[in-house]
Amino acid sequence: MEQRNIRNFSIIAHIDHGKSTLSDKIMQITDTVSFRNHESQILDDMDVEKSHGVTVRSRTVRNLYHDRNGQTYELNLIDTPGHVDFSYEVSKSLSASDGVILLVDATKGVQAQTVANYKIAKANHLPVIPVINKVDNKNAQIDMCEQQIYDLDDSLIEKNILHISAKTGLNVDQVLESIVEEIPQPNGDIDAPLKSLIFDSIYDSYKGIIAYVRIYDGKLRANQKLKFMSNNQSFENNEIGIFTPSLKPVKELHSGDIGYIVTGIKDPKGVRVGDTITSKLEPTIHAVPGYKPVRSVVYAGIYPKNSNYDDLKMAIEKLSLNDSSLYYTEDNSDSLGQGFRCGFLGMFHLQIVRERLINDFDISVIVTNPNVNYRVILNGNEAINNIDNPAKMPNFSKINSIEEPYDEVKMKVPSSSMSKVMDLANQSRGILITMDNDSNLVELTYELPVAEIAYNFFNKLKSISHGYATFDTKFLEYKVSDIVKISIDVNYSPVDALTFIVHRNNASQLAQSIVHKLKYVMPKKLYPIPVQAYVEGRVIARVDIPPLRKNAAVSGEKKSISKKQALLRRQNINKRKISSANIILPQRIFDAILGI
């Protein structure tokens, strides 16, 4: 395909605005896939995507479009997620695109991820095609949606907003025409040395790592000797091809094409997303600018439940290839054994990773309660950065101060919901920076601790605003806060997996809630087990887990003193045998605490 007939584009939208349906309709119109024997939402092929109804990771597909003049165009669609947790996946896809379709639901209007994804597109200087979907719905508010799109950016006023129904196919042909007319062709040099960007990768048990690439310059041939520019590691590609959307081998890819390279590399750490692949014999001089490093928002421990550590290690390494947003490092817990400390983009991302480990790799895991990253200043002014594990927090007597991360949060909310949103932000220890009126919306800018917004803030915001509030975050700085560590003892033995870092104002209430929850979810023994929470060496909450049966020594039955003493001695011996190493912590404990 000639470069002037290639268009590389993505579709950006808020969750459930019809992005996957539009992708299906584009593939159907271009005869890319026969839908006679296929179900809908082909690009969402993972079980977790189908069960949750969201796109988790980007997929790619090449479509051949024939316009009215008989010209054939290669339209490479690079799919994007719509959930707030997966903005990094969106940035990966847009880095390989030359333009985007901004899709808005006519019944819901511009929402949080609409704004966030649009800003990512503008930061990449990509042309935008605004499209309103579901215009055939009886609840469609087209005029309102158009005004909200114009309010996003003054430059969009000059755009012709397309009105479509992806479900019925209404005006989807106009979308294809706009892609050809408004999205520029790739501007690479086909005669220059090979320069290709890795924007994604997957792991295949037989083929090894398969890198998804955008060819910027030159030609890529099958069985060519290549190298990574970050570490000069050489390899010979076993196969190259395109996405239809399944993998289809080809003999050659040119500048502007989107395709894949079968590297044959079996080491999961051997391929880095954002790296540049070039020819080993005729390498390019400058690499393609890579992505910004992903910033994990919450951290949690993942430990094997029934399987061994090596199986979990292999599963996480393979999963990290399909999910470059996943950060992990080896960890060891006294109560849970060997495992990993992992970083996630948010709570939904954590849930998806847990389900994929169970469904895709058949590994039962225990996921500890999540927390954010802290910075500790010791008494000698020595700083300890990146405390992402509460168990690694130094003793309080050695700490001078603790700093927690803050985000700058911008929210556009309807004026009718403003007071409720401000109450939510104040309850989350937010600091109001600015308040601006924008037609019938109010823009609120807050400084908010990441620990407060990482868990359920976004869902609460959607609930109180009826889904009409926008939400955009940007890392601000670390600030000194009155942070304390809650330690949990079970039978007077510390359990490192049940350690929490919270603000002092919330410590007492949270500790009481945790120990009372443990009373009902912790496995019982034949004798009472004390559970207590303490902060800075002081017990602030305690409860006794009742035994499986009555205490024989104090059951009220008439027994001789010697028999009661013998029973008490045996019970005390059994109690002393319990330590944190043999305390059983099932997943329901962490799920129950997370619900608090």
From TrEMBL:
It is an enzyme of class 3 (hydrolase). CDD domains: EF4_II (cd03699), lepA_C (cd03709). GTP binds at D16, H17, G18, K19, S20, T21, N133, K134, V135, D136. Its EC number is 3.6.5.n1. Pfam families: EFG_C, GTP_EFTU, GTP_EFTU_D2, LepA_C. Coiled coil: none annotated. SUPFAM superfamilies: EF-G C-terminal domain-like, P-loop containing nucleoside triphosphate hydrolases. PROSITE patterns: G_TR_2. GO terms for molecular function: hydrolase activity; translation elongation factor activity. It catalyses: GTP + H2O = GDP + phosphate + H(+). HAMAP family: LepA. PANTHER family: TRANSLATION FACTOR GUF1 HOMOLOG, CHLOROPLASTIC, TRANSLATION FACTOR GUF1-RELATED. This is Elongation factor 4. It comes from Apilactobacillus micheneri.
